[in-house]
Amino acid sequence: MNAISERKKLRPKTVWQAPPSAKQDWEAGHRVGYAKGWSYGYHMGRCQRIVRDIPQETGILWDLKVMYVRAVGAPYVSIDEGIEDSLRKLVREVIVVNQEDDFVSISRETRPDIALMLFTLAPSFPIDKVQALRSLGIRTAIWLSDDPYHTDQTIKIVPYYDFIFTLEISCIDLYKSIGCNHVYYLPFGINPGSLLFEHVPTSYRKDICFIGTAFWNRVHLIDEIADYLKDKDIMINGFWWERLRSYDKLASKIQGYWLDPKETAKHYHASKIVINLHRSIDDETHNSNSRRIPAYSPNPRVIDIAACGTLQLTDVRQELSNFYTPGEELDTFSSSQELVSKIEYYLNHEEERQRIALQGLSRTLREHTYRSRLHQMLTIMNGV
Asked: Is the pTM of this model over 0.70?
């Protein structure tokens, strides 16, 4: 054996070890990641248990044949599905059609007792078909989805229906003032069968989430707190967010495209805090509300967010406390400063955050389902 080989044989083997600082960083990261994963999984399990333990009413309650006319547009798909599924479990028979279908001919053949239509800002709303249904002796109802923001359009349509149901309580007097006798306040709800509390990838998990179109009042709020949000784990989604003066600060956190309801629900469920900010009634750029009809009722997102078992921070509407108790089932803010303060508070009080989120989910399942809303609608229409 030569001298070189002998030296190699005698040289001790070395095992690479991470520098102490790198090892400490890994261990710290592991602890943080484990804690986040455990907290998310534990909360998801509690959500699943609430859904399991709050029984939903089942069975046919009405010996009726109902025709449901679907809305037009992707944003209404989940509403259509919720109404259709709940009707099928509530009445004897359901006939589902689209607005462009010849549902007058279908009605002549099938003779439904009631025809229910969900209003959307369709280019040509089928008023002539509604008149034809009434001439056949079929009771007609419309459920208005965008009050009071497009009352300049809806006020032209509602007189052609027997029953008008609106999401905005302030619109009742407006429609009655033009001769509509049967006008009722009826919010949307949720379909418990669509709630899936399942694991979602970590890419969905954020501390803060805001999903919605960048109406001007929302733009102003986000601009006011942009310096705070730029350092936060936040996702903002929706159209027109390039309007922000602070867009460059937040660009990496903005998704400028539309999310379907199922994807939206995943983001809500995976986020610690979801912000809800109602649109303004006097935004002339996007509204057709020349009478300035006020908005007192909470938007459907209030219920959608609560149904995802997450903490909701929302601005205040007059009717909000009839849906949820602030501080117990969601929380509210009245200024950008208060919003920042409450975000900080709940990010540092995890158990309280989860407790409020779970109580919001519980109340949603007990009181705010499509089945209960439609039962109320049918009770009104049948004079019970």
From this structure: yes
